[in-house]
Write a structure and sequence with these properties.
This protein has helices at 21-30, 74-78, 93-97, 99-110; strands at residues 5-14, 43-52, 55-64, 83-89, 120-125. By secondary structure, it is an alpha/beta fold. It has a single domain (5-132), classed as Rossmann fold. It has a 5-stranded mixed beta sheet. A hairpin with a 2-residue loop joins strand 2 and strand 3. This is Ras-related protein Rab7-like. It is found in: Endomembrane system.
Length: 147
């Protein structure tokens, strides 16, 4: 039997305050949802192991504060990231409009070796609110295509 190879991947979650970054992380890792909103102070992280083909991956998922006053902490938290998840609230157009600023700030502070090909994932959150009646962002325009 072939031995499993283990790999650590650091994933950063970014987006405006209140878009649901913490809820997404907790739902993905713990399969739990908490209705009580509590702003993240600085950053927090959870880990999750997943298997893909013959490899075992440990995802270190960093949930960062969306408030501007904590953005100066970015350098320490972003360094060594393997992927960045940009989250917006489909019911708040500004949170979608701010995604490019989050992306640019991440690239400045993380200084990845190949910024043109760094993997970003964009997630629209809160599609379940109000039966979709409050939704203002209806479609996603691709900012960058990945090959």
């Amino acid at each position: 039997m072939a031995s499993r190879r283990r790999m650590l991947l650091k994933v950063i979650i970014l987006g405006d305050s209140g878009v649901g970054k913490t809820s997404l992380m907790n739902q993905y890792v713990n399969r739990k949802f908490n209705n009580q909103y509590k702003a993240t102070i600085g950053a927090d992280f959870l880990t999750k192991e997943i298997q893909f083909e013959d490899r075992l991956f440990t995802l270190q998922i960093w949930d960062t504060a969306g408030q501007e006053r904590f953005q100066s902490l970015g350098v320490a938290f972003y360094r060594g990231a393997d992927c960045c998840v940009l989250v917006y609230d489909v019911n708040v157009a500004k949170s979608f409009d701010d995604l490019n600023n989050w992306r640019e700030e991440f690239l400045i502070q993380a200084t990845p070796s190949d910024p043109e090909n760094f993997p970003f994932v964009v997630l629209g959150n809160k599609v379940d609110l109000d039966g979709g009646n409050s939704r203002v962002v209806r479609c996603l325009i691709v900012l960058h295509s990945f090959t």
